[in-house]
Amino acid sequence: MNEKLKAIGTYLASLANLSDHLDIPEAQKSIRENIYFRGPNVYILFFAIIIASVGLNVNSIPVIIGAMLVSPLMGPIMGVGMGLGTNDTRLALDALKNWGVMVVISIIASTLYFLLSPLSLDKPTELLARTNPTVYDVMIALFGGLAGILETSRKERGTVISGVAIATALMPPLCTAGYGIANLNATYTFGALYLFLINSVLIALATYVAVRFLHYPKLDEAGTNTKRKNLSITILLLCIVVPSVLSAIKVVKENNFEIKATDFVEKHRFIGSTYIYDYKINSSATPASIEFYLAGEKLEESAREAFVLEALKAGFHEDQIILKDDATSDIREKLSDEELLRQLLQSKDDQIEAYRQIISNLQIQLEEAQQALLSTDTLALEETEVQP
């Protein structure tokens, strides 16, 4: 038994072994070469930012992905991580300087594009996705950065770096920041810059951790400087991560409220002769609320109280339920009589179909009960005939 466990342990250790697959000197050389931002890299970044901005402008995910594959943004960020991990202050500062130049060029390019672009964004979903970073973005950046530095460190390199560039999404936040500047929208600008900062810091942190773990050669072993550096990194991480955790909690609460509200509306679409024609979920309000727009006969007070009671049973508070009896006039301002009638008939058809489904299920249950009863009677008759 002990021999088998030892063999399993040896096999698992061989699976997790890294030393035979790494080329640390080549990895160091590659990272050092990629931190510098001059010549073709400047033009490539500018073009990639324009491509990503176009993709965000038209909400095209494939275009955005293509731009992320083109951009050279990862180099300086990994350079900062390796410089900190190997106590190479000169490398870390050079990489940080090039990172700053890269950010400035990216924001200028995206701002110019959105200032000149004739396309308007009625529903900028891809842009909005870059303005509300959460702890999930922290996890993506951290594990993406770990995958990136391991890919850079191994002897036989594949396509992992391209995947990391897509997953961590460094370019779209910079484009979104440019959009915010071009449209004087501080929410877009600062939200996107915060997301970019999260991605950059966590990729650099992942590189720092991997460089230490893989025993990259260090320049010095100054204990005091190392402690001060570790403390600075910890404080920076707390400043980055804590707001993202709070944002994630807020997003989860809003999402849960929206799911619960949608489910409640679907189950209580009709209130007597009154119909919930439309509803609006204000999940980000304080407190979160649902506005119900009613059509049909005017809602009686008893029916209103019964509806609010159902909402309380479903877990809502009374101040979260807002009933608007004058929705019919608002509806008629938005829709023609034909459209209104069509949508009301459609809702009735849906309700009739639901009733039909219930009747069908009851019929099946009735047939099964009759069949079971018939089987019982037949069995009783057979037993009677068998008796002498």
Please give the largest β-sheet: 4 strands, mixed
Tell me the fraction of residues in β-strands, as a range.
5-15%
* H-E order: HHHHHHHHHHHHEEEHEHH
Strand adjacency order, main sheet: 1-2-3-4
Q: What is the overall silhouette?
A: extended
Residue runs with pLDDT of under 50 for 5 or more positions: 331-335
N- to C-terminal distance: 66 Å
Helical content band: over 70%
Please compute the radius of gyration using only Cα atoms. Answer: 31 Å
> What's the number of helices?
15
* Overall residue-averaged pLDDT value: 76
What structural class results from the helix and strand content? mainly alpha
Number of strands: 4
Top keywords for this entry?
73% helix, 388 residues, 4-stranded mixed sheet, extended, mainly alpha
Break the fold down into its secondary structure elements and pairings.
Layout: H1 2-16, H2 24-34, H3 40-57, H4 61-70, H5 74-85, H6 89-116, H7 125-128, H8 135-153, H9 160-168, H10 171-182, H11 186-213, H12 223-267, E1 270-271, E2 274-282, E3 289-296, H13 301-313, E4 321-324, H14 327-334, H15 337-386
Parallel strand pairs: 3-4
Antiparallel strand pairs: 1-2, 2-3
Helix pairs in contact: 2-5, 3-4, 3-6, 3-10, 5-6, 5-11, 6-10, 8-9, 8-11, 8-12, 10-11, 11-12
